[in-house]
Amino acid sequence: MRQIIVVVVAALLAAVLASAGAIAFIKLSPDESRDAGRVGETRTSAPPAQEPEQRRAPPEPRPTVTVTEPRTVAPEQPGYGAADANFLALIAADGITAPDDWAIEAGRATCGMDYASAREYLTDGGLYDHHVQAFLDAWVITHGGC
Fold first, then answer.
1. Is 80's pLDDT higher than 90?
2. Taking the complete model, does pTM exceed 0.70, yes or no?
3. Which one of 68, 79, 110, 138 is separated from 96 by 20 to 30 angstroms, measured CA to CA?
């Protein structure tokens, strides 16, 4: 008796799964005709021809990384001495970017100032706060003080 119940339950389960598969096949049909007799495309079949508006757009270009070599020798400019050129090279190596004439002028102006006044002058000129001490140190190192 027990074997008959197992067989009946298995048969009912198979029938339910088969019905669910048929319903899913009909509902998921790729076109609107709901043609149950149509065989779905397989992976081995050729892809359908694409219309021009359906073609894939070319991939977006990847950004180009440009590496700028650090300036090792500052260009000689009129009115700049060797100490000024070394100063410009040193602050550039520290990651400080500023116009050369402003950097020289600011170095001369802040030399001998207390830190708070020099910091205010340099940050008002556009220097980042974390670069102030490096800027002041570079001036003193390259110019032997004030």
1. no
2. no
3. 79
